[in-house]
Write a structure and sequence with these properties.
Elements: E1 9-14, H1 22-35, E2 40-45, H2 47-50, H3 57-73, E3 81-85, H4 91-100, H5 105-109, H6 112-120, H7 127-141, E4 147-149, H8 155-172, E5 180-182, H9 217-225, H10 242-255, H11 259-265, H12 271-298, H13 300-329, H14 336-346
Parallel strand pairs: 1-2, 2-3, 4-5
Helix pairs in contact: 3-12, 4-7, 4-13, 7-8, 9-12, 10-12, 13-14
Bound molecules: adenosine-5'-triphosphate and L-tryptophanamide.
């Protein structure tokens, strides 16, 4: 599928909501960093996805820039990836409609994330929440994406993307590349600090359940000290001890030590000693990120021009696939896709 395309294409997205956490780093950004040398990378700030929940206008705008600056701060090389805001590339919404027309209601009703979010919502459930996986499929399929690094929670959405791509290709010819998921060996699902039975999430109302990449050292110390652990006192990785196992996973992922060596280092020591060292390791890990973040975020012009250039490249690239889709469906040429075709030729 990748013949003639150069490097394989990698695409991933994060919603500009809440505060980026160490789980987002471990499950997503760390993987992106490792893959940026070998892949043509597209990182999307999926603001349309974020609209499935009402957003505060000023905060929403600020957060897109904050996340883009954090990407650089976490070691993503601006020369090696394309970062853009989803709403700056209309092709995503255009392909969404077409894919909607090929999606069965039952497929979306079965999505675990939809069931969880809809089940928990006191407000009426909006259609965007239901349709969320189809927009994600459009994000991925527009770029001929080969690889999609995602955490465990997104596996089902990726399987749906593969299914809808196969369905389209079967009906209309080989237009979409079938993407592969990429899961980290460890850390695909970092759990909450207060509730290790649920995943750490950047929009959690309980701030003690996560560590944000921009948390100050004292806050980190406090959150780790108060993290829920399990009965007993041995530092052992064990599914029956979800609290301590989660903390060990975080330690291993941020320091690149193995779980075995952490276990050996803390044999005979208690939770308090381990938590104290973990807090210092997290603080040491975050310090350079926070420093680079402040520099990247304050250079507003550079940030904005990177996002603008990213969107231009994304519009050009995605219009190639969308052109083929329109053509395969028999849509009469001359509409908005032809406009982007002109832009592609001009640029
Ligand atoms: P939200 O609270 O808005 O649902 P989130 O923290 O789940 O936020 P997303 O925007 O849904 O974050 O996901 C961003 C990326 O981080 C995705 O690749 C996702 O798989 C990964 N990710 C999210 N939570 C975790 C987690 N607990 N462990 C590992 N990876 C995660
Ligand atoms: N649904 C994902 C965010 C997302 C995404 C994507 C991830 C939207 N579009 C495309 C990978 C590829 C989430 O909630 N984490």
């Amino acid at each position: 599928m990748n013949a003639g395309k150069g490097k394989p294409v990698l695409l991933s997205g994060i919603q500009p909501t809440g505060r980026l956490t160490i789980a987002n780093y471990i499950g997503a950004l760390k993987q992106w960093k490792a893959l940026q040398a070998t892949h043509d990378c597209f990182f999307v700030l999926v603001d349309f996805h974020a609209l499935t929940v009402p957003q505060d206008r000023a905060e929403f705008q600020r957060r897109c820039l904050e996340f883009a600056a954090l990407y650089t701060a976490c070691g993503l090389d601006p020369e090696k990836h394309t970062v853009f805001i989803q709403s700056h590339v209309p092709q995503h919404a255009q392909l969404l409609w077409i894919l909607n027309c090929m999606t069965h209601m039952g497929e979306l009703f079965r999505m675990t994330q939809y069931k969880e979010k809809a089940g928990r919502s006191a407000a009426p459930v909006n259609v965007g929440l239901f349709d969320y996986p189809v927009l994600m499929a459009a994000d991925i399929l527009l770029y001929g994406t080969d690889l999609v690094p995602v955490g465990d929670d997104q596996k089902q959405h990726l399987e749906f993307t593969r299914e809808i791509a196969r369905r389209f290709n079967h009906r209309y010819g080989e237009i979409f590349t079938i993407p592969q998921p990429y899961m980290p060996d460890m850390g695909a699902r970092i759990m909450g600090l207060q509730d290790p039975s649920g995943k750490m999430s950047k929009t959690d109302e309980n701030q003690k359940n996560y560590i944000a990449l921009l948390d100050a050292p004292d806050i980190v110390r406090d959150k780790i000290k108060q993290a829920v652990t399990d009965p007993g006192k041995t530092i052992r990785y064990d599914p029956a001890k979800p609290g301590i196992s989660n903390l060990m996973t975080i330690h291993a992922a941020l320091t690149d030590l193995s779980i075995e060596s952490i276990q050996a280092d803390y044999s005979g020591k208690g939770y308090a000693a381990f938590k104290k060292d973990l807090a210092e390791a997290v603080i040491e890990f975050l310090a350079p990120i926070q420093k680079r973040y402040r520099a990247a975020y304050s250079d507003r012009d550079a940030l904005m021009s990177r996002l603008k250039a990213g969107a231009l490249k994304a519009r050009k690239r995605s219009s190639i696939v969308l052109d083929k889709v329109y053509d395969a469906l028999g849509l009469v040429p001359g509409g908005p896709v032809s406009k982007t075709r002109r832009e592609r030729m001009d640029g």
